[in-house]
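Hey team,

Filing this mostly as a record. A colleague (T.K.) asked me to run one chain through the structure pipeline before their review meeting, and I want the input and output archived in the tracker in case anyone asks later how it was produced. No errors, nothing strange. Just documentation.

Input sequence:
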Amino acid sequence: MMRIKADTNLCVGSGQCVLTEPAVFDQDDDGIVALLTDHPDDQRAGAARHAVTLCPSRALSIPQE
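Output structure:
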């Protein structure tokens, strides 16, 4: 199962992840990424993976397990 990691110290609040997959990503009041789930289901995995690649600050990653 895919796992997503978010480094809130790197996040610049661009919101690309939220725009790409709002069922997995959100932003807090300061615009910093907040994961709604760190294990997206199969239906959301492709869009979540794409969102990780779009992150301009590389705050999102998919650790290899």
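Quick notes for T.K.: Residues 42-54 form the longest helix (13 residues). The chain has a mean pLDDT of 96.
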